[in-house]
Amino acid sequence: MRVSCQASRMADSMGAICDDLAAEHDALDALVAPLSEAEWKRDTPAVGWTIQDQIGHLAYFDGTATLALVDPDAFNASVEGLLAHLEEGDPTLREARAMRGAELLERWRAGRATLLDELRGTDPKARVPWYGPPMSAVSFATARLMETWAHGQDVVDALGSRREPSDRLRHVAHIGVRARPFSYVTNARAVPDGEVRVELRAPSGEVWTWNESATDRVTGDALDFCLVVTQRRHVDDTNLVVEGPLAADWIAIAQAFAGPPGAGREPGQVTGSR
User: Fold this and answer.
1) Please, which residues have CB within 8 angstroms of residue 99's CB and are 6 or more apart in sequence?
2) Domain range enclosing 53
């Protein structure tokens, strides 16, 4: 089955996206819940980050996401405070690093439950402030899913384990496609004219497509594409087929997440687990 995934097809209800976000939380929880204290301290492919840091990062930003929903003014003030203390080290990880793994797990569980409760009661079209431009509540929830999945991949890689891919990857892939202009902006480059067709095989067997009329294209497995746009794999370590100069130029810098250019992964840095 072929499915067009232009923006109009991504207008899922808030409840459906929240259900998918909850499922993504549960999948990651199942990986970290059995960990020993020593395993929480295991390094991940993100340099300087342990498994505990990955969960601490999610817990921190799930908390600020809730704040953005319930008190936008307080959220904006918290952003200023965060930026003011960046030179002292990553303030988003400081509290989590002082906890035991089991304590952090409970904090993350409580925070994500509160976030989901707030999201489910939010108008899908409401504008929510964030660290970049404000976004619709639906896009906001989808971005939290993408972040959970991406940081969960770092945990998977650290443990050398595997998680079964699901069609929740459509949300991650959609953000990756829509973020193509941002990938250039964050690298201080002009956004080139023209679109790139993206055609992906979903875990269910569906084929998802974006920008169907474009001639330059990226095709392959949805999991591979999501790993590349979240910078958890180098494109050379996937089976993606990249055709045309626009596609090749974009995929080399593709970035689905907000912030400055990510360091990404070197070819061959991560192998085996997916």
Assistant:
1) 52, 56, 107
2) 13-159
54-84 confidence digits (pLDDT tens) = 999 999 999 999 999 999 999 999 988 877 7
The two beta strands, 207-210 and 197-201, are antiparallel
User: Are residue 148 and residue 221 in the same domain, yes or no?
Assistant: no
Q: Are 22 and 158 in contact (CB under 8 A)?
A: no
**Cα separation of 229 and 250, whole Å?**
10
Please give the model's pTM, rounded to 2 decimal places: 0.92
Residue 197, token pair as written in the block: 């067709």
Distance from C-alpha of 256 to C-alpha of 226, rounded to nearest angstrom: 9
Same domain, 56 and 131: yes
DSSP code of residue 241: E
Confirm if 257 and 147 have CB atoms less than 8 A apart.
yes
